[in-house]
Structures are given as structure tokens and as C-alpha cells.
Design a protein that fits this description.
There is one protein chain. This protein is mostly helical. It has ten helices and two strands, in the order αααααααββααα. It has one domain (2-202): Rhomboid-like fold (Up-down Bundle). It starts with a helix and ends with a helix.
Amino acid sequence: MYLIYIIIAGTVITSIAAFQDRRLFDRLRFDPYGMSVNKDWHRFLTYALLHADWGHLLINMFVFFSFGSNVFTLFSYIFGGKALLYFILLYVGGVFISVIPSFEKQKHNPYYTAVGASGAVSAVLFSSILMFPQGEIIFLMLPIPIPAYIFGIIYLVYSWYMARRGNDNIGHDVHFWGAIFGFVFTGLLKPSLFNLFLHQLLNF
């Protein structure tokens, strides 16, 4: 559980520092064009330590804490002593894997940049959905419980659609691929989770 707090603390501290230091922000942000030219591959990971503003930071960290705590508890129950390693791989994998499509799409675009831990947060969220699809998700602006698997479907369809439109400043590609990674990675760690997921849906 302490790992959750370490990730949140590191992200909050780095984000706040970057709010006040533009040079730090520019050194760590995701910049596909600059990465392809300068080979500064650290940006595949460091961009997740930054956020566009306080709202972006607080939402990501709140969702991560809410679902990360449950996922880590379930990992501990399912994987025992390997839970810590697997959770780290889930989070870091979500950061890295989720931006590969954006890198390929935007590496010739000098104006595209991105920040935020949304890919990792989506990975953790969908890991939770795989293990507990009958759970409920509640939004502050819409205080009506939504079954986790229904939310997952809506989330993926919306992210895919908005990514194709590409007319806002939100990294919907990152949300989509982070979610896919989290679901598949968790299932590959223990394939029986896929069968359990289907069983829970059929008996919902």
C-alpha cells in the first residue's frame, strides 16, 4: 500500500515543481517530434510525472488512489509476494505502452506535446474492472452507481471516438491504450481472471 503513496507523492511533488519551473516542464513532457530528433527517450516515462494544471493533477491522483488501493489489495491476495512487482509493471507499463501509438502518430508534428498520468491511471482502473466487473463507479457530478463493466464499455467507446476526432487537447489515445493494457496485462498474469470476468458478467 505504501507504493501508492510513493507514486502519488512523487507525481505531486514533480508536478508542482514543474508548475513553477517551465524549463523542468519542457525537459520532462512527452514530445514525440523532439524525441525522434534528440533521442531523449526518458520522456516515454517522465511525462506522467507532470500535469497541465491543478485540476488535472487532483483528478488523476484521486482516481489512482481510489482504484489503486483496491487493485493492490487484490494483487496481494492473488499474487502474494509478487504483488508489488506486478503493480509496478502495471503502472509503468500503462505509462509507456499508452503513448506508443501517439508517438507513432505525432512524431513528425513539432507542435504536439502531452503530460499526465492518465495512461497509468486507466491501466489501474481497467485492471480493477477485470478483477471485479460487478463493482460500481460513482461520479461526483452524476451520483448514480454505474456497474464497472458498463463504465468500461462507455469509456473505451468514448475514448476511441474522441481520439479519431482529434479536435480537443485531451490525449484520448492514451486513455484508450492505457485501459487496454491494464485489462490485458492483468489477465495475462493470471489467465483464469478472464474466465472469472465472463462468469461474473453472466451471473450479474
